[in-house]
Design brief:
The protein is α/β, with parallel strands linked by helices. The protein contains 12 helices and 14 strands. The N terminus is likely disordered.
């Protein structure tokens, strides 16, 4: 396919570039089919890999050094995306903590910004036509830059197999790293919030993930026999310190990943409903996020009004779907975020969690803004703080419609 004849207006494109085989092939394919210059963008979101090789690979592929962007976005990722999401106690379909989903709007944002900075006409990504990421990248890009052109090679080219990709690489002199050892059968994606695994043996939902697949956590069976206690300090719904030590958002998440992983916390094996219409089986490790979710609900249990807490729980599934489906930059998500953030003004205090063999147990919570009143809640003498006789009228008023209904049905 020759796209150049149809898209001669594309002079420069910003490519989300990992330095791996697929995006290196995309880089060359863009040059060949669109006749354009390619700017590469590589984001450090805490995936735990050395990114400088991507610079060397891009230079080797002919990209100008001043058009290679490698950026450390870990703090922005956690502070502006992960933390706001966790203020809502966000979880998709009852289980998934959205580790991949929440990274895509930041990447889309930087792709658009770099396109503006470099005068590029288009952006490009390596997401396939079967997955959610193509939707997330492109919805984000269009929301931020309505006129941007998006090039998705996997939806255009005829390189449909690993063999055809390797043949293309050989024809065009694209270096292919031959790594020692056995290649992982899983498709993996990592950032500071999680690591995901798809494909290979996981395509059979009956097959248990092999223990050697997991990268960040020990198995619960092999976790220490002694529990680990962790104290988390909250300000306005965000963790600002662990065991009394102040930390940045990225430091908080990295430390919780370490603590959770060492205790077998955060493994998940699910079948989820993709936005594009298919079911997909995936496995995830989210040790820090699993701790954050449990602890945040604990501090909210003390500090949120009952109806505010219940309303947040009603809104959360919609909010989670917006993130999963790629609508982070939508007006409805922004509207919900304002309400969520407003609810967090008094979510301050401390939570103590116990990590033990894959479990996260909340064992303590306290706050100067706690709505928990021992004088009212006590089973002992409450010194008149609560008149139990008042419950009689309360119950009868709430039972009125039930009694009326029952009476009518009894006569029918």
């Amino acid at each position: 396919m020759n796209a150049k004849s149809k898209t001669s207006q594309v002079e420069k494109v910003v490519l989300a570039y990992s330095g791996g085989l697929d995006t290196s092939i995309i880089l060359k394919w863009l040059e060949e089919n669109y006749g354009c210059r390619v700017v590469t963008f590589t984001a450090d979101l805490g995936q735990g890999e050395e990114l400088e090789p991507a610079r060397a690979k891009a230079i080797e592929m002919g990209v100008a050094e001043d058009e290679i962007f490698i950026e450390d976005l870990r703090e922005e990722f956690v502070a502006d995306f992960v933390f706001p999401m966790f203020r809502a106690n966000t979880i998709y379909e009852g289980e998934y903590l959205l580790g991949t989903s929440i990274a895509r709007p930041l990447i889309a944002k930087r792709l658009v910004e770099i396109a503006r900075e470099t005068g590029a006409d288009a952006i490009s990504h390596g997401a396939t036509g079967k997955g959610n990421d193509q939707v997330r990248f492109e919805l984000g890009a269009y929301a931020l830059e309505p006129a941007i052109k998006v090039i998705a090679p996997w939806r255009e080219w005829d390189l449909s197999s690993r063999e055809s990709l390797m043949a293309y690489a050989e024809r065009h002199g694209i270096p292919v790293e031959m790594k020692r050892g056995t290649k992982s059968p899983f498709s993996m994606d990592a950032n500071l919030l999680h690591i995901s695994y798809e494909g290979g043996p996981l395509e059979d939902p009956w097959t248990e993930p092999p223990n050697e697949m997991w990268r960040w956590s020990v198995s619960p069976e092999m976790a220490p026999n002694e529990a680990t206690y962790v104290d988390l300090t909250y300000v306005a719904g965000d963790i600002v310190a662990i065991d009394g030590t102040a930390m940045t958002p990225a430091e908080v998440l990295a430390d919780l990943n370490r603590l959770g992983g060492a205790n077998g916390v955060g493994r998940l094996d699910i079948v989820e409903n993709r936005f594009v219409g298919m079911k997909s089986r995936g496995a995830y490790e989210t040790p820090g996020g699993t701790i954050m979710l449990r602890a945040h609900r604990a501090i909210e249990s003390l500090t949120l009004d009952r109806e505010v807490a219940h309303l947040k729980d009603e809104l959360m599934p919609r909010y989670a779907s917006l993130i999963y489906n790629g609508f982070w930059w939508s007006p409805e998500r922004e509207m919900l975020q304002v309400a969520i953030d407003h609810s967090q003004q008094h979510v301050n205090g401390e939570v103590r969690v116990k990590l033990y063999k894959g479990n996260v147990d909340v064992v303590g919570r306290r706050s100067d803004e706690s709505l928990f009143d021992e004088k009212i809640a006590t089973f002992e003498e409450d010194e008149g703080a609560y008149n139990q006789a008042d419950a009689d009228g309360f119950i009868k008023l709430n039972a009125l419609r039930l009694r009326t209904l029952a009476s009518k049905r009894a006569k029918a």
